[in-house]
Amino acid sequence: MFKNNHEINLQSAKLSSAKEPEDFFTSISQFQLAYGVIDLCEIGLIVLNDELRVAFWNKWIEDASRIPRSSAIGRKLENIFSSLKSVRLKQAIDAAICFGTPSVLSEKFNPHTFPIYASEPDRKLKKKMHQMVMVKRHNAIDKYCLIQIVNVSSSVIRDKRLKLHASLSIEKALHTRAILSAIIDAVITIDGNGRIDYVNPEACRLIERSSEQILGRTLASVFSLVGVSSTNLQHKIKQCLDKSNLASYQKQQAQLSVSASKNIAIEYSISIINDKAFDAKGIVLVFRDITQNKALTEEISWQASHDMLTKLRNRYTFDQDLSNLVSQAKELKNEHVLLYLDLDQFKIINDVCGHLAGDELLQQVAELLSGLVRQKDILARLGGDEFGILLCDCSIKKGLKVANKIRQTIQDFRFGWKDKSFTLSASIGAVEINRTSKEARKLLAEADTACYSAKDSGRNQIHTYRPDESEAAERHGEMSWISRIQKALDEDRLVLFGQKIVPTSSNNGEEYYEVLVRLVAKNGDIVPPGAFIPAAERYGLIGAIDRWVVDEALKMAQKLNKKGMNSCYKFAINLSGASLTSSETLDFIMAAFEKYKVPYEKISFEITETAAISNLSAANRFIAKIRGLGCSFSLDDFGSGLSSFSYLKNMPVDALKIDGAFVKDIHNDPIDRAMVESINQVGHSMGLKTIAEFVENDQIIAILEEIGVDFMQGYGVSKPQPLNDIFSL
Amino acid sequence: MAEGWVYRNINIGMGAAAASLSEMLQEPVELSLPNVELMSGEKLAKAMKKLVGEDVSLVVESFSGHFDGDAMLVFSKVHSMDLVRQLLKSEDLAISDLSEVEQEALVEIGNIILNACLGTLSNIFGKNMHYNIPFFTQGHCDDLLYFNNVDRKNQAVLLLTMQFVLEKTKIDGYLTILMDVDSMEIFNQNIEQYFDADPIV
Fold first, then answer.
1. Element (H, E) at A573
2. CA distances from A617 to A423, A476, A611, A614, A645 (A)
3. Is residue A392 very low, low, confident or very high in pLDDT (cuts 50, 70, 90)?
């Protein structure tokens, strides 16, 4: 039936025909022919007889074994090849002889069955031939069997190569697989029939299905985009396969529908997998979850538009909101109000308790303010301790009511930090926004000016913008103040004023003057200290001003001494916090006393409570040194927001100046009066003199006399005047 | 009649084949023969498609003499690769076809099994039977029935389902003996005679 390629049927040799004499020559030639063919065969042929002895041995096996036919014939195989130990071969020979069943001995399972060599070089290298051995019954002669040996070295080599390539491609595939598993993008590949043939773990994760649930399916059945029909998606893929439209499917954004209730935002690209001939073999779809990116983008944009500390809108956003409201007011002819709010005591708290407390305070104030405005109003932190509020659809009248409520709430608010409690106040500038309003930037500047004006007028107030405050606005621009102060110092355009401090009738002390500094503008206007001192403090020019004042005041004292007016004067000079910690200023002051020969007791220094407390040890050293010389010290603005009695014990001062905020309403406000009484009492009990500021009228004077305050200062007593005028110099 | 006889005798032959496979591979191989069926050639193609799918690997050993036919060991293409690669301990190979060397190895395995079966026939038919060297081929299931342009639709088939139980897996293989109807009749008659003569079996 089937003829196998490897099979040589010796029947065709007709060995038996040699015995037929009638056709001898023909037979001889046929025999020779057959013999020649057998010896030309490129396979080994061995015939074993019924005794399992070699009956035939062709040339091929002679060459491969180097055993000549003559010495092989008649011998058993195990005697010819001493190393022949194949049990399979024996079984195969037995099966062929006994049952007539043929056997194949593969090289894989029976390596090198016969110890033979394909060539002389192989023999030298001891590289035995890879062989396939076939054993079958000799059909013509019963109990004889035929062994065929085929050299399969080339297929073994091919097999090895194949395996090498396979293992290389496995490595490559593993490499690719590892990359695809590790990358953060989801990858799906689709074969030419539109079936998914690869999916990476990230894709499984995003689609929320196992690879088994994805592989072999169409893309549209597992990957559905919201708003894109499956046919549409298939169409896109088809377009890609047709190469008709590629570029438009790079980095598309869409919503991937994972389940009925879950969509995720993705970005995806579709590209073709080409073969070497650039024919499309499939599609690769890469996509990634951009939900987080979106959230991140939103987060970033939120951060860009909000103040991190208070979570309120920031100045940038507020400016935009204001612009929008301004144009809205023009279009819809409605009214809004812009409030500019500045905390009055923020700097003190920040300086005394540290930034942590300052931050906490700002957060609490932000929360406080949030509760005071409507949902539709806009609240922002404009920087530092400044807040902006846009009251939408609100008249200025109503707006001022809201502003007052805010002012009142902040005034009533108590800020607790560790064991201390602070009171606050806010200065608020208000500007109406209506259809005639100027551009947003100008409105904000106006509100700022109004706020400044409120601060300048004693804090805890609300001012609406009036155009005549524009000059103040100009003055208020702190940055420009740096150069202006510097210039004024250079050009000696600072001038000393003095305000008389008089003893009350209960006190037999002598009157003296607080030395005040004013800046003379180029046009000759006198600029009050509130306009430039904060800027000088912030930008480090205050030390220079202090030194100027000390120098000028002592120079004046020298003049008065020379004129014999030494009984007419005693000066109180203000020193800033910065000077208290500056050894340069200390040296300067001591040198000035030397220079102008002014008796120390003629000069006292006023330092603010806050400046002293925030640098207590340095301030104490400074005070001790100057006081040691004979000067006296008083604490200015005492009681302003700080529960500072405890500090007082450690402070080597001679007098307390009661904060004017308690004094100016003392005739109306019993609490203020109680405050003044207690400060006065504590001061006296510590052996300190007390001085009341902001004494504006006789009513106040009467009360202060009654309380027993030692000195009074204020418009009700005497207004500040140029020192030169006072002493007619 | 024939099925029962074949089942009993060939099962014994399978035991011997399993023993020689185990010895050759030096690991336990069990061969089980759960089922023997006699059917028409036409039915065989359908049965095979159902059993192994359309892509098949075959080891064919043909026989002639008293009666003619082909003994075939049929695997699904995938199973044949699994079997060879597990036996050759090279299962991780990512080649979707058997190499020549692997084909030869499969032929040897098939040869051992087919001989176990055909040797049983030799017990009955003795030297009157001639067997050819087995060979490997693979192709579509329908090609089973069309070797050498011979249409075997009307032939009779003995289908023996067998299972290779290896260390790691069980692999299904199918042994078929295809004969023309005349041969099958002779086969049956011979079996009956043999059966009558030898009451032990």
1. strand A571-575
2. 25, 33, 11, 9, 17
3. very high
Q: In terms of residues, how long is chain B?
A: 201
- Any idea what the Cα angle at residue A38 is, between residues A33 and A44, rounded to 5°? 175
Report which secondary-structure segment, H or E, holds A518: strand A512-520
Q: Looking at residues A500-516, what average pLDDT do you find?
A: 87
The answer to whether A280 and A240 are in contact (CB under 8 A) is: yes
Q: Please determine, for the modelled complex, whether the ipTM score is greater than 0.85.
A: yes
Q: Are A88 and A110 in contact (CB under 8 A)?
A: yes
| CATH T-level topology, domain A10-151 | Beta-Lactamase (3.30.450)
Query: Token pair of A577, please?
Result: 């916090």
Return all residues near A485 (Cβ < 8 A) that are at least 6 apart.
A519, A532, A535, A536, A541, A545
Mean pLDDT of A698-715: 92
Where are chain B's structural domains?
A: 2-197
pLDDT value of residue B3: 67
With CB atoms and an 8 Å threshold, state whether A100 touches B127: yes
- Asked if pLDDT for residue A53 goes beyond 70, the answer is yes
Spell out which residues of chain A touch residue B152, defining contact as CB-CB under 8 Å: none
Q: Is the dihedral of CA B3, B5, B11, B17 positive or negative?
A: negative
Contact A148, A48 (CB under 8 A): no
- With a cut of 70, say whether residue A21 has pLDDT above it: no
Residue A105 CB contacts under 8 Å (≥ 6 apart), including other chains:
A86, A88, A89, A92, A113, A132, A133, A134, A135, B108
- CA-based nearest residue to A108, from A92, A132, A134: A132
The minimum CA-CA distance between B46 and chain A, rounded to whole Å, is 24
Domain formed by A183-295, architecture: 2-Layer Sandwich (3.30)
Q: For residue A556, which amino acid is it? A: M
pLDDT, tens digit (0-9, with 9 covering 90-100), for B64-104: 887 778 888 888 888 888 888 777 776 555 566 778 888 89
A 10 A CB-CB count for A499 gives 19
Q: What is the CA radius of gyration of chain B?
A: 16
**Secondary structure letter of residue A79 according to DSSP:** H
Q: Where are the beta strands (DSSP E) in A107-158?
A: 131-137, 145-151
The pLDDT value recorded for residue A245 is 52
Fold of domain B2-197: Chemotaxis protein chec (3.40.1550)
Q: Which of A87, A99, A102 sits opposite B132 (nearest CB)?
A: A102
Asked whether the predicted pLDDT for residue B201 surpasses 50, the reply is no
Percent of chain A scoring above 90 in pLDDT: 35
What CA–CA distance (Å, rounded) separates B82 from B49?
19
Nearest to A1 among B93, B105, B132 (CB): B132
Question: Angle at CA A194, nearest 5°, toward A192 and A200?
Answer: 95
Number of continuous H segments (helices) and E segments (strands) in chain A? 30, 28
Q: Where are the domains of chain A?
A: 10-151, 183-295, 306-476, 485-726
Gap from B196 CA to chain A (nearest CA, Å): 22
Q: Is A183-295 in the same CATH topology as A10-151? A: yes
User: Mean pLDDT lowest for which of A53-57, A345-349, A413-417?
Assistant: A345-349
Could you tell me which residues of chain A have a Cβ less than 8 Å from any Cβ in chain B?
A: 1-7, 87-88, 91, 95, 99-110, 132, 134, 136-137, 139, 142, 152, 155-156, 158-159, 162-163, 166-167, 169-170, 173
pLDDT of residue A500: 93
Alpha-carbon distance A628 to A622, whole Å? 10
B108 touches chain A (CB under 8 A): yes
Encoded tokens for B172:
């299904």
Which secondary structure element, helix H or strand E, spans residue A692, and what is its range?
Answer: strand A689-692
Query: What is the length of chain A?
Result: 729
Reported as a single tens digit per residue, the pLDDT across B40-74 is: 877 888 888 888 888 888 899 988 887 778 888 88
Integer Cα distance of A626 and A583 in angstroms: 12
What CATH class has A306-476? alpha beta
